[in-house]
Amino acid sequence: MDLSSELEYYDYIICGGGTSGCVVAGRLAENPNVKILLVEAGQHNKDLENVHMVGGWSNNFDSETDWNIITPPMKGVDNRQVKLSRGKFLGGCSGCNGTLCIRGSKQDFDDWGLEGWSGEEFFGYMRKAETFHPKPWFDANEQAHGYNGPLHTEPHDLAPISQLIMASFISEGLPHVPDMFSTGETPHGCGHAPRSVYNGLRTTSADFVTNGYTRKNITVVTGSTVDHVLVEPDTRTGELVARGVLVQGTLNGDVRAYHAKREVVICGGAYCSPAILLRSGIGPRAELQKHDIPCVVDSPGVGQNLMDHPIVFIFYETAHPNLTTDHLVYHDNAFETTYNLWKTNKSGFLSTFPFGAFAYARLDDRLANEPLATKSK
C-alpha cells in the first residue's frame, strides 16, 4: 500500500505520549536537526486539574482520562475481572501515579549486561532528568540527585503517625537510611521516597515536551490513536522496515498516515504497546489469525508473559486525634477548606500524595526462623 502522497514526514514518530513517550520525544528533540511527531490517544494535560493537583489522582480513573481496560474473567483469580486503570492523557500514568521516585538498584541494570545501559550510566541519565529541591529536615544524598532537569522532585513531609511508624522501624533494628531509594545501592532499611511534586504541583513526563521544554522540532498530536504501524519491505535489502503509522482521531474517527524517515518508536505501555504490534501484524501467528489480521512477523512473545506487582492495603483505626491527616479531608466540611487552600496557595493535603514512611527489608533475614520459611525449604 503506497500512501506516500498522503503522508506527513518526520524523522521519528513516537507512538504514545505517556510516561516514556514524552521522555523519548524530549530527549530526541535535543538534536535540533531532527523532526519528531508525538502521538497521544488522550487529551492534552494542561487543563486537567486532577493531574496537576496531586490529591485528585483517583478522579482520573473510570473517566475519559482512563483507558478503562477490564480483563475478561480469569481462572487464576477465581474468574474475577480485573480493572487495569491507566492514564489516557499527555503524560500518561506519570500524571495519576503515587509520585514516588524509586530508581531501583544499579545492580539490576548491570545484570542486563547491555553496553551503554549499566547501572552507573543509567543513573547518570536519571540525574540529568531531575531537578531536586531539598528541604532542611531531609538528609539527602546530594550526589545522587540532579539539579537541572524537567522532573522536579522534593521530599515529602510526614504525618505524625508516619513519624511514629518510622521510629518503630528503627526500634526493630532496621537501619535509618533517609535517601535510600535514590542512591542505587541495594536498599535495606527505612527512610523516605522523594516525590515528583514541587510547589504543590505534580511533575509529569509531559514536562519533557511542554512548559520550559517546548521545542519547535516536536509536533504533539493529542486525541489520536495509533491504529497500526505501516511495515513494508526495504526496496534494497528486502528486510521489513517500519515506514510510518496509521492514526485514527479519537473523537472524529478521521484516519491519517504519517511517515518516519528514521524510526517508529512504540511507547504505549505494558498494555497498549503489544496491542499496537498485534494490530500491525506482529505477534503470534495463531493469535493474529483469530482476529483475521495478516501475519507480517510471527513473534510468539508479543502480548504474552505480562507480570504486575500486587499491592495490599491494611487498614487501622486510631483513637488519638490528629495523628493522621484524615481530618483535613473527611471530617465535616474539611474538604472544601482543603480544596480552596490548594486552589489559592497550591498547598495543603491536596498538594501531596499520602504515602508516608518506607521500609525495605530482606525477608530471608527477618523470617528465617518463621514457619513460612522453615516449612518451605
UniProtKB/TrEMBL annotation:
Q: Which GO terms describe its molecular function?
A: flavin adenine dinucleotide binding; oxidoreductase activity, acting on CH-OH group of donors
Which Gene3D superfamilies does UniProt cross-reference here? FAD/NAD(P)-binding domain, Glucose Oxidase, domain 3
Lineage, opening ranks: Eukaryota, Fungi, Dikarya, Ascomycota, Pezizomycotina
Q: What is this protein called?
A: Glucose-methanol-choline oxidoreductase N-terminal domain-containing protein
Q: Name one Pfam family in it.
A: GMC_oxred_N
Residue ranges occupied by any Glucose-methanol-choline oxidoreductase N-terminal domain in the UniProt entry: 269-283
Q: Which UniProt keywords apply?
A: FAD, Flavoprotein
Q: Which cofactor does it need?
A: FAD
Q: Which organism is it from?
A: Aspergillus chevalieri
What InterPro entries does the record point to? Answer: FAD/NAD-bd_sf (IPR036188), GMC_OxRdtase (IPR012132), GMC_OxRdtase_N (IPR000172)
Concerning its family, UniProt says: Belongs to the GMC oxidoreductase family.
PROSITE patterns recorded for this chain?
GMC_OXRED_2 (PS00624)
